[in-house]
Amino acid sequence: MTTARRTQKQRRDQAEAALLHAAAELVVEQGVRSLTLARVSERAGYSRGLVSHHFGSKQALLERLARTTQTGFVPGLADLPPGRERLLRLIDGYIGALGEVGVLNRAFLLLWAEAATASELAPIFRERDEAFRADLREDVAAGTSDGTIHPDAVPEEVAVAIVGQLRGIGLQRLLDPGAADTERLRRSVTEHWRRALAPIQP
Fold first, then answer.
1. Per its UniProt record, what SUPFAM superfamilies does this chain match (predicted)?
2. Is residue 159 part of a domain?
């Protein structure tokens, strides 16, 4: 019985991953306004009923897509305690990951940009960006507490600046993949923040 339940869960997870990938492909190819549950089911090769069973609505599908594409974008962060090193690892890893942006991450960046004018997307990405900033604020606060970040650093301001920079680099990569060498950029941007946040020497 345990094996049967596990196999059923595996089938469900596989179907959900295929549906999300199909949704991401459609967003990249045609934009969010053309996205429908029917088109997702057709692209993924599943029935419309299964798509509705998994997500229920286009809004729920978009929310799941936003969460799935953002989660795990920079691997290994969960193993690090909050602080300066986790923050710098995030910056370095994020820009490095932009060097090979797959369809899921392309979809996330396109949806994020479109959220400025699409009312169905705005609440999703406000929540996603706030979660991103909250992690960064936690890192800055931990760094100021342990002395690895200078005490004048304002967590909210640093978080807004970093999110804006990283998302902006991502959008530039979408528009013009050759605009920046991400391997060089990741080093220079990470070093910039290392110096900017370093404790002030007496």
1. Homeodomain-like (SSF46689), Tetracyclin repressor-like, C-terminal domain (SSF48498)
2. yes
> At 46, which CATH number?
1.10.10.60
Evaluate whether 95 touches 169 at the Cβ level (below 8 Å).
yes
Mean pLDDT confidence for 138-149: 97
What domain range includes position 87?
70-197
- Cα–Cα distance measured from residue 127 to residue 4, given in angstroms and rounded to the nearest whole number: 37
The answer to whether residues 84 and 144 belong to one domain is yes
Pair 22, 83 in one domain: no
Spatial separation of the C-alpha atoms in residues 143 and 162, rounded to whole Å? 15
User: What is the Cα–Cα distance from 68 to 71, expressed in whole angstroms?
Assistant: 5
Specify the 3-state DSSP secondary structure of 182.
helix
The total of structural domains in the chain comes to: 2
Q: Give me the chain's average pLDDT, please.
A: 89
Tokens 């342990």 correspond to 146
Closest CA to 103 of 188, 18, 163: 18
Q: What is the pTM of this model?
A: 0.82
Query: Is 80 exceeded by the pLDDT of residue 73?
Result: no
Burial class (CB in 10 A: 0-12, 13-18, 19+), 173: buried
